[in-house]
Structures are given as C-alpha cells and as structure tokens.
Amino acid sequence: MRVLGIDPGLRNLGWGVIEVEGSRLSHVANGICHSTGKDLAVRLLSLHSQLTDVVARYAPEEAAIEQTFVNKDGAGTLKLGQARGIALLVPAQAGLVIGEYAPNQVKKTVVGVGHAEKCQVEHMVRLQLPGVEIAGADAADALAIAICHAHQSRAAGGLAAALRKAAS
Amino acid sequence: MRVLGIDPGLRNLGWGVIEVEGSRLSHVANGICHSTGKDLAVRLLSLHSQLTDVVARYAPEEAAIEQTFVNKDGAGTLKLGQARGIALLVPAQAGLVIGEYAPNQVKKTVVGVGHAEKCQVEHMVRLQLPGVEIAGADAADALAIAICHAHQSRAAGGLAAALRKAAS
C-alpha cells in the first residue's frame, strides 16, 4: 500500500509518500508545495495544481492528513482552513481513502510520546525510512503523518484479523 | 458582464449569477449547494463538483465572494475556511477575476447602510433583480455579493474613464 501524508499550510504544504509492505516501510518521495503572493485564490489554485501533480506522479492508494490545531488566532485558522480544504479535496478527487490524525496521535505513534519535540519526530522518521532525504520541516511532518496512518491501518487490520479468528 | 456571487459555507454554499449591462442588472440564476455527512473530504468534493457545474452551466466572467467573518469559534472558522477554500478554487480554476468584499461593504452597497438587516438585503436584491425567485437566505446573500461586485466594478470603471479623460 502506498500512502500520501499531507501537512496542510497556505505558504508551505508538506507532503510525503511512503510504501507499506506488511510491517516494512520505505520512502518514495517527499516535498513541499509553496504558494506566495497576495491573491488568495491564485495561491489555492497553485497548491491544488502542485498537489494534484504529486498524486498523479506517485499514485498513492490512501492519504492521511493532520487534524488542524485550532487556536485563538482566527485569521490564521481561516487561512489554514482554506489550505486544508484544498489538501482534502485533492485526494478526494482521486478517490483515495483519507485518514485524519491529531498532532499528538501522530507523535505518539511515531515517537512513542504525544508531547515529542519536532526534532524527535524528524529523527524517528529518518530511522523508519532509511536513506530518506527530507525536503524540510513540513515534509518531515507529512512523512510522520503517513507513517502514523500506516501503523493505524496495520493496527486496524490486525484487529480485524483477530476478530475474524475469534469469530471462526 | 456576467457575475457569480458566492456566499461560502460548508453545509449551505449560496450562489447567484447576474448579468450586468451598463447600469442595468438582471437575474440569471441562483441556488444553494448543500453538503451533508460525516466525511469532510467527501463534503468538500461535493461542493467542488456542484459549484463547478454552476460555473460550467452559467459561464460567468467574474466572481465575487464574501470575506469571512472571523470569530472566536475556532472550529467554526476552520470549517468555514475549508469551504471557502473550495469556493475560491472553483472560479480560479475557470480563470475568473475574483473580488472579495466584507459583509458590511456588501450591505452598504446594496442597501445603503453597513449595518442593514438580512431582510433588508433580500428586499433590495428583489428590487434590483425584478422577478427573481430566491432559493434561500444563502442564495440571497450570494446575489447581494454579485450586485456589490457589479457596482464596485462600475465605480472602478467610471473612475478609470474619468482618469483617462483627465489625462487626455
């Protein structure tokens, strides 16, 4: 299974694609979609176009996205929301299953604790994806989200198998 | 010139298309794109698909969207932001010019005062678009936004003409 992780943002939208074969993870690609300028619609269009290209090029079968942290900065939340709308739309347009994970769930899955520092997350991403070259902090987060999804899916799959066994 | 007005929302996204010929406005169509269900990505995909159909069917040349009111409800702002991302993306994908207007600017242009009630806005929309049948409150707001854009464009056009005249 190939998983696309997305760390949404209006200026920098991180993405990372990993391959999952049983318990083995491997790195496929990662990067950051940038958008700049004053015109919000043009920036959203650019993010949509760049992320659509990523999906077309790496053909992921599932996607995972970070649940956005809502804070008191309403204008910031709105900006992020608009970018997140695009980040959800693109995999939905490609018919992908999309998992959503809270930031502390991602950290807990990848590092083992929910309050891990960013550098710990990146360290564990490097350990779990040997040889990976990371395009930047947002791409590292996106890879972590993809890894989280892989573990959650495997856990869900393992549970399903256990239930099937129990029922038989 | 044909203008598409959009009142963004995740559950109900209002839209209205008007025709502008000099100082004469006429109604083309209006409606509401609905999205329901638990899956956010599916809802955004549905809004994108419905609004894309509207643009394809009525072929507007310009678009106008309400600037979102940011309040202290972070979760609500995030939801609205995600829907607004789609509402901006669709006209941008069609290559339309997009105007953004604050709610009180829309009211001031359509009713004459920035603190007008919703019913006054709908009343003035009916007066300026004779014979219009309005699909609901969100569609009325969308028509008001389109009317605001028509007036602003005309004002900008008039100003440009005056400047050209002054320069000649």
TrEMBL record, chains A, B:
Gene3D superfamilies in alphabetical order: Ribonuclease H-like superfamily/Ribonuclease H
Cofactor note: Binds 2 Mg(2+) ion per subunit.
Gene Ontology, cellular component aspect: cytoplasm; Holliday junction resolvase complex
Main location: cytoplasm
Active site: 7, 66, 138
Catalyses which reaction(s): Endonucleolytic cleavage at a junction such as a reciprocal single-stranded crossover between two homologous DNA duplexes (Holliday junction)
Keyword Magnesium appears in the UniProt entry: yes
The protein's Enzyme Commission number: 3.1.21.10
Source domain of life: Bacteria
Keywords assigned: Cytoplasm, DNA damage, DNA recombination, DNA repair, DNA-binding, Endonuclease, Hydrolase, Magnesium, Metal-binding, Nuclease
Protein function: The RuvA-RuvB-RuvC complex processes Holliday junction (HJ) DNA during genetic recombination and DNA repair. Endonuclease that resolves HJ intermediates. Cleaves cruciform DNA by making single-stranded nicks across the HJ at symmetrical positions within the homologous arms, yielding a 5'-phosphate and a 3'-hydroxyl group; requires a central core of homology in the junction. The consensus cleavage sequence is 5'-(A/T)TT(C/G)-3'. Cleavage occurs on the 3'-side of the TT dinucleotide at the point of strand exchange.
Subunit structure of this chain's protein: Homodimer which binds Holliday junction (HJ) DNA. The HJ becomes 2-fold symmetrical on binding to RuvC with unstacked arms; it has a different conformation from HJ DNA in complex with RuvA. In the full resolvosome a probable DNA-RuvA(4)-RuvB(12)-RuvC(2) complex forms which resolves the HJ.
NCBIfam families according to UniProt: ruvC
Protein name: Crossover junction endodeoxyribonuclease RuvC
Native species: Salinihabitans flavidus
